[in-house]
Every structure is written in C-alpha cells, then in structure tokens.
C-alpha cells in the first residue's frame, strides 16, 4: 500500500532539490516551513518583521501564479511585498490596467529597463530586451524594418511551411500509428527552435528529428530560463555577489552562456563566409535576419569584436523571443482545444470554408482571413500569456494611478497572468475559454487595448513580431488540426512551470490520433 503524504511531507520533498541546485534558498525555505505550520490557512500576504513577505511566496511557490491572482483579486489589483530585514527587497505586484497604461505608455520615459534589469538578464547582453534610450530606439527601428520586409515575411512563412511538411506532419503520422504517449510541449519547443533558428541564422539545427536529439544550444536556453526566474526571487545584492565570485546559480548560468556564445559564434562565422563568397546582389537577397544585419554593418557603426557582440546579442534576443513564446502559446492552445471540442470544430469549419483548396497549408492571404482562429488564439493568450509577468522600476519617484508611491528602489511587477483572470477587467466569465468575446456582432475581430491585453507587451515596447507570431501559429494549427487529433491523456493536470516563460511543469502529455 502506498503511504499517503500529508501537506507537511509534501512541503519537505523539494528541499533536497533546493539544496542541490539553489543552496542560497535553503535557509529561507527552512524558516518558511516553520511559518507553514503556523499559517497553513493564511491567504493575505503579511510582511513579517524578520522575513518580510518571502515566507508566503515560498509556501505558495507550487502555484505562484494562481496564488498571486487570488491576492490581487482580494486587494484591488495591487499588493506590496517586503523582503527580509536588512535587504532592500521591496516590490509592488499589480495587474491594474490604469497602472499598465501609465507605466508602459503615458509615462514610458520614467520607466527604462534600468541597471537591475540588465543584471538579472545579463545573458541577453545589449540586445533589444535590455537596451534603453538611443540604443533601444536604433535596434527597434532596424528590427522593425527587417521584420516588416516582404522578403523576410515570405521567407519566414516558407520556412515554417517546409518544416511542417517535411518534419512535423511525418513525425505526427508515425506517432498516430501507435498509442505512444508523447510530450507535445517538447515537440513544439523543438519545432519552434528549428524554425526560429532558420529565419534568424539561416541554419536548421535539426532539433525536431524522429529520435528527438539533445541539442546543446536548446538545452542551454532551457537552463538560462530556469535561472532567470529564480533571479527575480533572490536579493539583488546577492546576485552581484554571485557575479563577482562566480558561485551558485551564476556559475550554472556561465556554463550555459558559454555554450550559447560558442554556437552563435559558429553561426556568425559560417554566415559571413557564405556572404563573402556571394556577389553583392546575392548577399542582399539573403532573407535571414543574421545576413541582413551583417550586410548593413556600416549602418550599425561597429567593427571587429564589437560588431560580433552586436550580432550575438541581437540574434540571441530574437531566438528567445521567437522560440519560447511561440512554443508556449501553442502548448496551452492545444490543451484548451482538447477541453473545448466545440472550438476545435469551429476552427476546422473555418479552414474548410476560407482555405478550401488546401486547408492544411493555407496561403498567407487565407491565414489573415481566419478570424475565428485568431479570436481563439487571443483568448488562449489572455488566459495563458507566454510571458506571465513584466517588471519595471521608476527612474524618478511618483504615485501610480492606483495611489501607490514608487521610486527607484521599489520594483514593480505586472502580473499579465492575473490580469486575464480579473472579472472587473474581463467580466464574470473571465475564467472561461470563450473566443466569441473577441468577435463583434458582425463577426469581425474586436480590438482590446494593450493595457488590458498584455500578451504582446504594451506601449512603445509592444512586440515587433506580433503579426509574424500569429501567422506562424495559425500555420502550425492548420497543419496539425486538419490531419490529426491531439488528445490529452486522461487525468492530466496542467501546471505552470517556474520560469520566465509560462511552460507546463510536466509538459503536455498527449496521444496523436489520425483525423477521419
């Protein structure tokens, strides 16, 4: 007979893992356990004199997003958390649309990414996610020109289509011949890694192969994401110590970082070699983003190793944006489709009507007409945003629209996950998956302001790849749905993973069935 674990023993299980991978958190967790015995039913955050609010954060770490959603719902969309005594940890958690509009748009200049953000996300270098002011403006302007170019858009779509036709559908076809249970999240990560690598570097690493090979670059990215999440929890000064003396999670970060740098350096060298062997006309016809940046080196204004670092930072930022967010969006979308068969049926009917010649591979023009599919994707992104939170810090002190003061020392955390679950923002049915909320009475798409729907960020930093992402995701959905049924295994419970990207903790366990 299997022994039954009570709440206390379940709480103790992760401690060995924490001691192994995150020794800096062990002492805090021991204190949290004692408080767990005293406050098992506590719901509201309490800033204890010695430990601040960290005990409550640890007690609910297995369901952090849902717990913080409940807190924000009970506290008028805004909570303040303090860290342990003697530390400067002080952050404001909010999902108030008024605060979002103020920070991300109307007073954007007062909320740069800042030094602390650059330390946490140091692996991104000086890329667009970390950049501020003139550097950010230049990178955004250049990226916008490249990503809205017809040549690049056609290349990105063809890369997606070819990967689906040559790898994804044959793989699913083999899986459909058996009752094998597979992790669809892993498959989507491999798919988007190959596609994003292709239109970023011009090379396909072959991650989505039938034998599911281990790709060092992809594994290093997974490691980086996990560490970045924990960097939001530990004190900023502790991160600086880790950097200075290279221990703890920083040491693990360096190992992954080295792999990423080595692979990108190889891609850059190989791409330069190819471009040097071509004529200027051939080079200008290259559609991948790395080639486009190399060709415009004079405009970038950097030489030698400085230019190589620019290429490394720029392309890695694009890889993070393209691979992880898209795969997370696909994973949660297919999970929701399994739970809402009527939505899946409506999408299939729309594909048959609007792409009658080839619903498996609709053209770009036909993809733009898939209004119901677009609405269903928006609804999925509302409930499960790939980036579940954003954070900012004020350059100058001020009072937010919600009435809470902020300054340079107070970090502002925006819960995008919670925002999609507030009935005051989305109505009493906010927890329901209902694509129709995105459609007008005439059947056209209903626009929602970005300060309310933050899946693609908001204000001047709104995601440049939004249209590209929708096109890519729609192409993947059409190819899979028209050929196969993705059935989640009975009893599976989806839980968000501790990461800066909203992956599933145990993956998405499914069986693939042929569609009659």
Rg measurement, Å: 23 Å
What is the tally of helical segments? 23
For the largest beta sheet, what order do the strands appear in spatially? 1-2-7-4
Level-1 CATH class name of the largest domain: Mainly Alpha
Task: State the secondary-structure class.
Answer: alpha+beta
Q: Under CATH, the topology of the largest domain is which?
A: Cytochrome p450
Label the CATH architecture of the largest domain: Orthogonal Bundle
Unreliable parts: 1-18, 30-44
Classify the helix fraction into a percent range. 40-55%
Walkthrough of the structure:
- The protein is of the alpha+beta class and 516 residues long.
- It has two domains: 1-87, no CATH class; 88-514, Cytochrome P450 (Cytochrome p450).
- The chain is 55% helix and 7% strand.
- It has a four-stranded mixed β-sheet. The protein has a three-stranded antiparallel β-sheet with strand order 3-9-8.
- GO terms for molecular function: heme binding; iron ion binding; monooxygenase activity; oxidoreductase activity, acting on paired donors, with incorporation or reduction of molecular oxygen.
- It comes from Rhynchospora pubera.
Secondary-structure blueprint:
Layout: H1 7-12, H2 15-21, H3 26-38, H4 54-59, H5 64-74, E1 78-82, E2 90-94, H6 97-106, H7 114-120, H8 133-147, H9 150-175, E3 182-183, H10 184-201, H11 216-231, H12 236-245, H13 249-277, H14 280-285, H15 289-295, H16 297-300, H17 304-339, H18 341-354, H19 364-368, H20 371-383, E4 389-393, E5 398-399, E6 405-406, E7 411-415, H21 416-419, H22 423-426, H23 466-481, E8 484-488, E9 509-514
Parallel strand pairs: 2-7
Antiparallel strand pairs: 1-2, 3-9, 4-7, 5-6, 8-9
Helix pairs in contact: 9-10, 9-23, 10-17, 11-13, 13-15, 13-17, 17-20, 17-23, 18-20
């Amino acid at each position: 007979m299997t022994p039954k674990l009570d709440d206390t023993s379940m709480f103790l299980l992760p401690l060995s893992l924490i001691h192994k991978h995150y020794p800096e958190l062990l002492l805090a967790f021991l204190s949290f356990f004692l408080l767990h015995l005293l406050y098992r039913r506590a719901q509201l955050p309490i800033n204890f004199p010695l430990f601040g609010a960290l005990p409550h954060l640890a007690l609910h770490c297995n369901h952090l997003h849902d717990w913080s959603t409940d807190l924000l719902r009970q506290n008028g969309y805004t909570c303040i958390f303090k860290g342990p005594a003697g530390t400067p940890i002080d952050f404001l958690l909010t999902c108030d649309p008024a605060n979002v509009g103020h920070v991300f748009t109307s007073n954007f200049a007062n909320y740069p990414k800042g030094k602390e953000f650059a330390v946490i996300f140091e692996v991104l270098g000086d890329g667009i996610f970390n950049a501020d002011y003139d550097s950010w403006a230049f990178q955004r302007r250049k990226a916008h020109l490249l990503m809205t170019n017809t040549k690049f858009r056609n290349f990105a779509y063809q890369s997606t289509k070819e990967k689906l036709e040559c790898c994804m559908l044959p793989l699913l076809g083999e899986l459909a011949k058996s009752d094998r249970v597979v992790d669809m999240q892993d498959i989507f990560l491999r798919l988007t890694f190959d596609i994003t690598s292709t239109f970023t570097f011009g090379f396909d690493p072959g991650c989505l192969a039938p034998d599911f090979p281990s790709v060092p670059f992809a594994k290093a990215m997974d490691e980086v994401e996990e560490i970045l999440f924990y960097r939001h929890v530990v004190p900023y000064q502790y991160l600086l110590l880790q950097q200075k003396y290279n221990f703890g999670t920083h040491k693990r970060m360096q190992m992954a970082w080295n792999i990423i740098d080595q692979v990108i350096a190889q891609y850059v060298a190989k791409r330069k070699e190819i471009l040097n062997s071509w004529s200027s006309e051939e080079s200008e016809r290259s559609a991948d983003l790395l080639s486009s940046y190399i060709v415009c080196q004079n405009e970038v204004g950097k030489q030698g190793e400085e230019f190589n670092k620019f290429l490394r930072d720029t392309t890695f930022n694009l890889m993070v944006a393209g691979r992880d967010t898209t795969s997370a969006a696909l994973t949660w979308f297919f999970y929701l489709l399994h739970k809402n068969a009527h939505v899946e049926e409506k999408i299939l009917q729309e594909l048959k009507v609007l792409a009658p010649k080839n619903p498996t591979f609709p053209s770009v023009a036909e993809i733009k007409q898939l209004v119901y599919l677009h609405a269903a994707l928006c609804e999925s992104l509302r409930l499960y945003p790939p980036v579940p939170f954003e954070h900012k810090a004020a350059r100058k002190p001020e009072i937010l629209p919600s009435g809470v003061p902020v300054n340079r020392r107070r970090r502002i955390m925006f819960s995008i996950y919670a925002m999609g679950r507030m009935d005051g923002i989305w109505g009493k049915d906010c927890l329901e998956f209902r694509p129709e909320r995105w459609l007008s009475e005439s059947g056209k798409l209903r626009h929602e302001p970005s300060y309310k729907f933050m899946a693609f960020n908001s204000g001047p930093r709104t995601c440049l790849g939004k249209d590209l992402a929708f096109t890519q995701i729609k192409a993947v959905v059409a190819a899979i749905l028209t050929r196969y049924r993705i059935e989640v295994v009975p009893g599976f419970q989806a839980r968000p993973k501790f990461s800066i990207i909203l992956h599933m903790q145990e993956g998405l366990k499914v069986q693939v069935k042929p569609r009659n």
